[in-house]
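Thread: "does anyone have the structure for this chain?"

Original post by V.I.:
We have the sequence but no experimental structure in hand. Need at least a predicted one for the grant figures.
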Amino acid sequence: MKPRCLIALALTVAAVSSLSCRTASQRLSQEERQKKEMEAWEAYMRPGKEHELLAKRTGTWDYKARIWTAPDATPSESKGKSEFKMVMGGRYRIDTTDGEGLPEFGGHPFQGMGFAGYDNFKKKYVGSWIDSMGTGILVGEGDASKDGKELAFSAEMPDIAGTMGQKTIKLRWTEKDIDDDHFSFAMYMPGPDGKEFKSFEFEYTRRK
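Reply from O.Q.:
Generated one for you, tokens below.
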């Protein structure tokens, strides 16, 4: 065989060998990527201790509420009940509320529904709320205290009345454990002067 042919054959074998190695390497890399993706998704979907904290509310609760429409206003009072349950394998908490209506809002019976969870990727508690006093969906994010006895959320909502001079206003709410059968909920928002005031306060008692 002529030297030129030998050289061509050697180059061909080297090219094929290189291509085979590269293909095997790419296949291994793809398998590793898929494995990493699956591990990440499994971690993302796995309920943890944060979800167990949310599950403590499971059950039926009676509440007494006080509502302030302005910092210096006399609070209105109402009462009702809320039912909490975990869904989708303990990943999310749903609560449904039925209560008395308020004169300031037409006196119609109050209905509300909340969703809460813990986003394993964001490392944040997430929550949303809808009720019969509006047509929007309030969405917030928050954190738990170190002892796990308080959840604190922050969110933004439209300046519906247009009295704050801005499109949205910032608000926050807290959920505090008192004991196994009692907890409180409070919401804070800015008043006309821009200073924060408590607008809602709910005191919950577990129904036996």
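V.I.: this helps a lot. Residues 6-11 have pLDDT under 50 and may be disordered.
O.Q.: and The radius of gyration is 28 Å.
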